[in-house]
Amino acid sequence: GDVDGLDSKNEEPVEQRLHAHLLSIVDKTLKRYTKKESSLLIELQKAQKREQYLHRGNLITANLYQIKPETESLIVTDWNEDGTSMEIELKLDTDAYSSAVEEANDLFSRAKKLKRGSIIVQDLLFSNEKIMEQLNFLRSQINDGFSELDVLLFLKEEMKKSPHIDSSTIEMPSALVKKSGKISNVKQMKASRHYTPTFRELKSPGGVKILVGRNKRDNEMLSFKIAKGDDIWMHARGCPGAHVVLKISRGGPKPTDECFQMAANLAAFYSEARSERKATITLAEPKHIQKPRGAPLGAIKLRKELKSMLGYPEDVPTELKEKREECGFFGENGTRSLGVKSKNKKKHKEERVIRKSKKSEQHVKRKKKSDESNVILSETDFY
What we know:
Helices cover 47% and strands 12% of the residues. The chain has 9 helices and 10 strands. It has helices at residues 14-62, 100-113, 118-144, 149-161, 174-194, 216-226, 257-269, 318-327, 345-367; strands spanning 73-79, 85-91, 200-203, 209-212, 232-236, 244-247, 279-284, 289-290, 301-302, 307-311. A hairpin with a 5-residue loop joins strand 3 (200-203) and strand 4 (209-212). The longest helix is centred in the first third of the chain and has 49 residues, at 14-62.
């Protein structure tokens, strides 16, 4: 049987086996939608031909009154969809057809065989593209959670809700799933019991304490054990980042607008929005922070939002910027992303520009509306 997450016949840890299983499902689904995309592109070419047939047929029909039996070509007015017009030469295919009426009828007949117009096919292509974006996003999440069983189990449950994935293929053998869940719970319990937080602690202009999480375990502890009562919880909206808590104690200094602004700036600075000029920051009361069942460490859901405000990453204290440049930025996964040592400054600056460009593109994509917008780990619900 299974012992400590290992199978007697297969010594791979449960995490690796679940990771490979989920990745295989997503890759097969991506393959199916890639094939569908190719079919739709072929259909789009045919659909565009259909419109050419209709356009020419209508042009001939509209000018039958001035086409004589011996006419081979004539100058006609061609109207565009925007209401503009232009004079063009209409050449009739006198070799293939005995009359202009016969040519027009054949064009309409050929167009009728091409069932869907290009606008419909383009809509289908757009929907297909959005689904593939979601699947690729899911694939990256699975890879990011390669060694984290709680993350993989959560993603597995989210995949079951997706209308684009065959849910019957998601489940693994019940013995493995049961063992996996048990190990995951033990891991989280041990981690929370023995973990020593590494929060950043700062003082606001009004003397109020501000705590900033350095990694996902810090974030978990800040949100569910440290934040209480009148405290204010903050997080950059729509992107990964640190959980920030403005500690408001009875009898202590009351937070001013400057205190709130400093906390919001820190939430923006210690997030993936740190290269932007400004970022929207979500504020909430601790009592409205919830832990979704099966969610990975550091992931929360808000029952109710207090309000939102803008955070300005560049307005944090200079020493924080210098420290981050020297030491690097610790993300929610507990690992350090790019730090800037002097010998690598140019290289890392270029990489930050590239990341900023990518984030801008993702922001534009998120603005697009689509009926297919069933994104795994909703950016607006989870933090």
